[in-house]
Amino acid sequence: MRPDLTALRTQIRAIETEGRPALSCLPTGADMLDAALGGGLALGGVTEVVPAAFMDEPASLHFAFACMAKALQQRSGDLVVIEDASRGQGWGPAWGQLYGPGLQKLGVCPSRILLVRAPDVKGFHACLEDAARTFGLAGVLAVSGPKAGFSLAGARRVQLAAEQAHSLVLAVQGLRTSAFAPARARLVLASRPCRPVALGTALPGLGPPAWRLHLERARSGARPQSFDLEYDDATHCLYQPATLANRSPQPQRLSA
User: Fold this and answer.
1) Which helix (H) or strand (E) holds 129?
2) From the CA atom positions of the chain, what is the Rg in Å?
3) pLDDT tens per residue across span 151-175
4) 21 lies in a domain?
5) What is the pLDDT of residues 28-52, one digit of tens each?
6) Structural domain for 228, as ranges
7) So what's the pLDDT on residue 245?
8) Which entry of 58, 145, 244, 256 is 20 to 30 Å from 181 by CA?
9) pTM of this prediction?
10) CATH at residue 58
11) DSSP E strands, the chain
12) Exposure of 161 in the CB half-sphere (CA atoms within 13 A)
């Protein structure tokens, strides 16, 4: 990048943040992702979470609840989940309803969730703005369909409301929903095969939840990049799994 362009971006960022309180972050536990986001998920801003494909919509919602489990662990208050009614009953006709035992497995206590189902798009926008402006919440999770996208002015109001209340807001967008332009970061999620647990262990079967996350853009200035992530439900943290480098995919027989 040219030095003059880098200096110009630094000046613009200083103008945008002049007179505003410094934003802190909620670390996710994945060190490289947190570094790219400027420390973690923004407290005082909106982070946009979108699926890479239609079949990845449950994965994006799963990831968002995993992040909110961390917020519930470290912050007081409850989690407000706002659902766009235009998605249909529940979380859309294909994905069904929230499942309490599944939330508890992630570390999200159902008794700390306030579920709001907005009757229309206008009500959805108003509920999200009011929740983002509310002090004392652990977080706000908004799930919108393709008809509930924000205009630039409406998205800006939500972003400013989150800054004023120091709120953690995750906007889980549908595949064809218009982008939330003022978001602090845009995360594109895809499901990834989880590692199987060996049969000799105490709980054999499927391994931890796994995703491929692509950081499409971030206000921190980080370049677009991808991360393989897994979730530890004991510590409520994301982490990057260890990879085996310079290994052959097939076992080799050693001659005597």
Assistant:
1) helix 121-132
2) 20
3) 889 899 999 999 999 999 999 998 8
4) no
5) 999 999 999 999 999 999 999 999 9
6) 44-194+206-237
7) 41
8) 58
9) 0.82
10) 3.40.50.300
11) 24-26, 41-43, 45-51, 79-84, 113-118, 139-143, 168-172, 185-191, 210-218, 225-232, 237-239
12) 19
Pairing of strands 139-143, 24-26: unpaired
Residue with tokens 């499927």: 206
The answer to whether 141 and 68 have CB atoms below 8 angstroms apart is: yes
Residue pLDDT, tens place only, 110-138: 999 999 998 888 999 999 999 999 999 99
Residue matched to tokens 């971030």: 218
4 in a structural domain: no
Cβ–Cβ < 8 Å for 194, 208:
yes
Q: Would you tell me how many other CB atoms lie within 10 Å of the CB of residue 222? A: 15
The amino acid occupying position 88 is G
Encoding tokens for residue 26?
A: 């909620």
What does the alpha-carbon distance between residue 204 and residue 125 come to, in Å, rounded to a whole number? Answer: 44
Cα dihedral 132→87→105→59 (10° resolution) = -100
User: Residue 67 corresponds to which amino acid?
Assistant: C
DSSP 7-66: HHHHHHHHHHHTTSPPPEEE--S-HHHHHHTTSSEEETEEEEEEESSGGGHHHHHHHHHH
